[in-house]
């Protein structure tokens, strides 16, 4: 009893406040000893555990030892990570020993970083949710740095290539939605949870779609809970106005009317074609609807727009842009290939104009699609389509649509109205898709018509084989009236002579032309068959009387050179023209041919192209054939 009384008296001398502090210090020391040997507090205090774990690893290893990320933890994310840390990349595979992919937040992080990484555990996530949500609403503590304050390029920061963000690899809250340009603009202000001025919130995982920000980039859906984050500074209204003005300046109209021969309209997006109404509707995308002015065009899709006579019967096609989908006709047919709308009116039916006004422009416009294109033809003529069917089948894998009589609403993602054209029977490679040229066109024709020869004979390489000369016969105007004499003279020089006239059987005549090495004829549509000659073959154009050199040069001289043909020309004298049988020698037809040209195209054509035939002076013409033979020796 005396000992107990003595003990009570000694405690009574100690101040209660000092006694309490001593007991608290003792408890804290005991707690530290307990924590050092167990992970009991890992669930309740993840941040403390992270600090302690980092301290233990730092004490156990040297600063140069690399700490790797856990690949399973990164892949499973918040749901299935374990307490054990495994390597993030397969050490056995050198291609995977550098990076671990975090599927949950779609980032790539450096697994060899010296900065420690504490992965989420399922228990940590669920137990700390309330704590983090409170932090989002009312931040009372000083925010941890997103990345290493000393060097943002350091291993503490990992770049998210998918969303252009920077993430803190040592923080449990891992999503920081900074873009590169925003990251460099200084420290943004702290904002609220609402979306302001075009910055969208993360996607709803159940919605099946993502919102986009003002730049049009998709915000990835993030399943992690984030720390309070600053909202990036938004651009001012003046900057937006300048951006809109720049886009408006860059915007191209639907139709290009700058070309000399044809107006061409080209559209990408939602294009709806109503053939029977002769209209094309372009649905303006919502992103540029505010920038694009309402457009309305009327074009005639034929490649001779300045020729009133040719364009008079070409059906007009109306085009307009439309923003309101409720006003648009509903699609009845959806196409997965582009559309090309064109006319076969004008001067079609004339062999030369068939090619220069339609077939060459059609090749120029459509060949780039490799057959995956839909033709819609206005002023449809079935007989004309059948005449050139091999060409249409080679250019398109789809049946041609009669634009004028089709009642459906055909919807395309890309459409062209009108055919691109450069000059008569000429393609300018510098302006053509993929640098196409007339050589490519002739090669295409040889394929379409299954023509065998791509080069002419070289005299001397095949003993006993004669070069073939084709004389283009004409049954009506500008015909040779002494063709028999021409044949005899050519045969004496060593030619095998073929005389033939083109007809509606293009395939048959194409094979005849391709079998020959030299083709000659009076200026006219029949010379259009030069497109079937082998490359480096020879074309001889006989120019009628009447100052027609410019016509001969424009329509066949220049085009033949573009096809890599060798061109020879022979201009007849007035004695070789049958006009001497119709007009006195002192008539303006002979004395002043230019005065006939002043009568206009119709007057000139009537005299020099319709009334005139050719009586060739074979002796005068003979040197031309001899020159052709010399060229075939080269």
Automatic annotation (TrEMBL):
The protein's annotated pathway: Glycan metabolism
Name assigned to this protein: Alpha-1,3-arabinosyltransferase XAT3 isoform X2
An annotated GO cellular component: Golgi membrane
A Pfam family assignment: Glyco_transf_61
GO MF terms, alphabetically ordered: pentosyltransferase activity
Name of the coding gene: LOC105041137
Organism: Elaeis guineensis var. tenera
Membrane topology qualifier: Single-pass type II membrane protein
Subcellular localization: Golgi apparatus membrane
Lipoprotein recorded as keyword: no
Keyword Glycosyltransferase on entry: yes
Ranges that cross the membrane: 19-37
Region of interest: Disordered: 183-245
UniProtKB keywords: Glycoprotein, Glycosyltransferase, Membrane, Transferase, Transmembrane, Transmembrane helix
Biased composition (Basic and acidic residues): 206-218
Main location per the UniProt record: Golgi
Highest taxon above the source species: Eukaryota
Record domain Glycosyltransferase 61 catalytic: where: 351-539
